[in-house]
Amino acid sequence: MTTTSGNRPVGELLRQWRERRRMSQLDLAIQADISTRHLSFVETGRSKPSRDMILHLAEELELPLRERNHLLLAGGFAPVFAETPLNSPEMASVRTALGQVLSGHQPYPAVVVDQRWNLVDRNSATGLLLRGVAPELLVPPVNVLRLSLHPKGMAHRILNLGEWRAHLLHRLRRQISLTADPELTELWRELDGYPCDQPEPEIGAGTGQIVIPLRLRRGYRELVFFSTMTTFGTPLDITVAELAIEAYFPANPETAAYLQHQHHPD
């Protein structure tokens, strides 16, 4: 998943990440409080960085925990960040926290996804979003971006498909720029190839909207949502670091009333 394929030296990998972050050697040296000369020697292999120096530079570059482990291995050190399966006993408190957030968000939809947008868990309110989706798209692993934009997924019910599609592809491109994950790049290519008969506006062009809404057809109704993303603070485990909760909120009183009625029909 990574820029660290092969047996490239740690200095070369650090340089590649620095350039990906669009930082000069001087920028990173100042931020990391080291000399430019020292950083140059590390990047060219003239100086072997210590374990602490690798972790320090990785922190300043805001690298994912998985990539920090790869850098440590390239530098001749053991990884320091564990990757604990979510279903393991050690992760019981994490599973409990996720379950509380999902159930507490009812009657509004919420999902837990991993870093590649594969569905990890969801609450029952998401059933409203999944109506009419082709069964094959719901076979695990379920990718929520594919589910949204696939012609047999939610796409035919999204009234502002061009706008929503532009938003999702923009978000995915930004994630690719931060992580350099080739599987996300392949996912972007797949999603970008899906048909769309609506114009796709430039994100950030200034439409006067507060957020980009999801406008969903539900029978003769139009349901309007906005979403938020929540991650764990200061994670030290790769699995936890790569989890996110996307919660959908009603963007108007009519949508809120409909969802409340669906949850409590009496």
What are the defining features of this structure?
disordered N terminus; 5-stranded antiparallel beta sheet; Beta-Lactamase; alpha+beta; 266 residues; 434 Repressor (Amino-terminal Domain); 44% helix; 2 domains
Question: Could you characterize the architecture of this molecule?
Answer:
Helix 1 packs across helix 3 (36-44), helix 2 (25-32) packs across helix 3 (36-44) and helix 9 (161-179) packs antiparallel against helix 10 (182-192). 44% of the residues lie in helices and 11% in strands. The protein has helices at residues 10-20, 25-32, 36-44, 51-60, 65-74, 92-104, 127-130, 144-149, 161-179, 182-192, 238-241, 253-263; strands spanning 110-113, 119-122, 214-218, 221-230, 244-250. It has two domains: 10-74, Orthogonal Bundle (434 Repressor (Amino-terminal Domain)), CATH 1.10.260.40; 89-263, 2-Layer Sandwich (Beta-Lactamase), CATH 3.30.450. A five-stranded antiparallel sheet has the order 2-1-5-4-3. It is built from twelve helices and five strands. With 266 residues, it is α+β, with helices and mostly antiparallel strands.
Summed up, what is this model?
InterPro entries: Cro/C1-type_HTH, Lambda_DNA-bd_dom_sf, MLTR_LBD. The protein is of the alpha+beta class. The chain contains twelve helices and five strands.
Number of strands: 5
Sum up the overall morphology in one term.
Answer: elongated
CATH topology of the largest domain: Beta-Lactamase
Name the CATH architecture of the largest domain.
Answer: 2-Layer Sandwich
Uncertain ranges: 1-5
Largest sheet: 5 strands, antiparallel
**Helical run tally:** 12
Q: Strand share of the residues?
A: 5-15%
Order of helices and strands: HHHHHHEEHHHHEEHEH
Please compute the radius of gyration using only Cα atoms: 21 Å
Q: Look at the structure and give the CATH class of the largest domain.
A: Alpha Beta
Protein name: Transcriptional regulator with XRE-family HTH domain
InterPro entries: Cro/C1-type_HTH, Lambda_DNA-bd_dom_sf, MLTR_LBD
Pfam families: HTH_31, MLTR_LBD
GO molecular function, one term: DNA binding
